[in-house]
Fold each of these.
Amino acid sequence: MKLIHRIGYFSVGLFFGIMLLLFFLGGKKTSCDYSPNDRVLKNIKIKERAFSAEAFNYFETNKLDTALVSESLENGNVDFSRSNTEGKPCNVYLITNKVKEAILELQIENCDSTATIRRAILIQ
């Protein structure tokens, strides 16, 4: 079989394979959360969230919307060097996210069924 025929058959098979993947995975909310940062954020996002009194007071005092927590979990970065990933019984993660001209730092305690926002700081 000539090389041009092989390339033609390969191209047709590749095209149908991509179409099948798009058909089966197109309507589903599939994601590629393979990096450690993405896995931690996804794990925290799917859990019930709670606020400590300190964090809730900080949001009220500075007139910040608690929706910034959801935005930080979508677009933020986990600072593993300042996080306690070996905590017992819960790990504590420091998540940073740029909000307007400032940086929002959240300290989140990630337990089995809940994620508690322990502390929030807005750095100008």
Amino acid sequence: MSEAKAVFESMLGRFDADEADDMEAVFQFDLDDADNYHLIVSDGKCVMGEGENDDPTVTLSMDLDTLKEVMSGELDGMAAFMQGKIRAEGDIMLSTKLTQIFPL
């Protein structure tokens, strides 16, 4: 299993359905140095997909280390965005809920 896939699998294991209640969203992750993945949140469930989704709600572009640091709590996502380590397109406010939907 690739290192990127392992990160997304760990996120699936931490998915909080209560925090994602009523959310219908597609989070696209375009990784600079690894395969791209997307997470579909719908009906209180989260499903991971490989590659690009045709209609993402928000697209987050970064390198794998940044993703790992944000999802492990080592780096604040907003700080990473302000430092230019994360680029976002689409519903940027939705991206701020990632750490609530996938808590540590």
